Amino acid sequence: MKGTPYILLVIMILACSCTDILLGEDEDNNPENIFELFWTDFDLHYSLFEIRNLKWDSIYDVYRPQVTQQTSSPKLRSIFVDMIEYLDDSHTALYTNGMGDYTSGFALGEKAIKEEFSINLIKLNYTDGLETVKGEGDMAFGSIKGKDIGYISIRKMEGDDPEGAITNVLNELANQKAIIVDIRTNDGGDGGYAKTIAGAFSDGEYFISTVQTRNGPSHSDFDAITREYTQRTGTVQYLKPVILLTDRATISAGDYFALNMRAFHHVTIIGDSTAGDLSSKSMRKFLPNGWSYHYSIQKRLLPDGTSLDGIGVVPDVYVKNSKQDIQGGTDKVLNTAILYLKETYGIE
Fold first, then answer.
1. Of 35, 80, 185, 312, which cross-links 273 as Cys (Cβ 3.0–4.6 Å)?
2. Cα separation, 283 vs 295, whole angstroms
3. CATH class given for the domain over 109-274+316-345
């Protein structure tokens, strides 16, 4: 036990040092240090530099000279916004304590939400009313007016009992000759939830993607490959014609739902491409000035080795609404789906 006094002395010194660091936050809370922490953390952990062909060093070269000890918070925020916008990845976001949060690459999604979709229009003009599914994030169902076509809206991939919920909905719509599943403006949630809901439409098990998580300092450092397959869930599979409606505001777990659904032979995707943000995101990271952020930490590849990140799940039939369509009481995307079912399957 000769070393005990020395060990205790070291512990006391370390404890004092830690206290100094905690109390000396102002010493590190300066724009230059904050920039270095922010850029370096992305450099070491962000997962999509190679997938999206991004040159992160060039971002350092452009923006580091613009930051000094005197850089104001609004200016620094503006620089960080430009840096993450370069990534064009809506799983990357900056939170700046009342100065306005910012999500990268979300301009097209925001436009889709504000101008290209209205659930109230669908309720009033296209269905006989929608019944909300209790306990599920934002799921509702009904029937298209005057048609043998069911309609399911899922605008968030989260809830208490996805298997039970979708089973009950499909039992209610079992007599319909087709179903339109609308995930436009779905802002994501839980990938497992999305997979479970998709499993109720599964006509088999298909290899759909590989997944890897960044695990080292090099931009090419990832853990072992995990292969992902579609699955059947519950006691009911709806195998009659299904139309899946998507748009640029279909994000994250919404993307993943579309990736699963596109594997099934009786499913046709109509609308616009999804957002193309298929990675999981990091936990919230915090900077000395109280700002926080998160970013993508995985890469998901198709079986052929290509990526849909930044591209999205591409529809079989491309169509999108304009602001004027919605304001005029018309959902052109939904109209196209109804016409497709009539012309392809004789369903009306």
1. 312
2. 8
3. alpha beta
Could you give the CA distance from residue 79 to residue 346 in angstroms, rounded to a whole number? Answer: 55
Residues 6 or more apart from 142 whose CB is under 8 A from it? 127, 128, 129, 130, 131, 150, 151
Q: Where are the domains of the chain?
A: 29-105+281-298, 109-274+316-345
Token duo for residue 152: 């399911």
Question: Which tokens go with 334?
Answer: 């939904």
The predicted-structure confidence for 221-245, as pLDDT tens digits, reads as follows 999 999 999 999 988 899 999 999 9
SS3 9: helix
Number of residues that this document lists for the chain: 348
Per-residue pLDDT tens for 329-345? 999 999 999 999 999 99
Fold of 29-105+281-298: Transcription Regulator spoIIAA (3.30.750)
151 and 331 Cβ atoms separated by less than 8 Å = no
Q: CB neighbours (10 Å) of residue 226?
A: 12
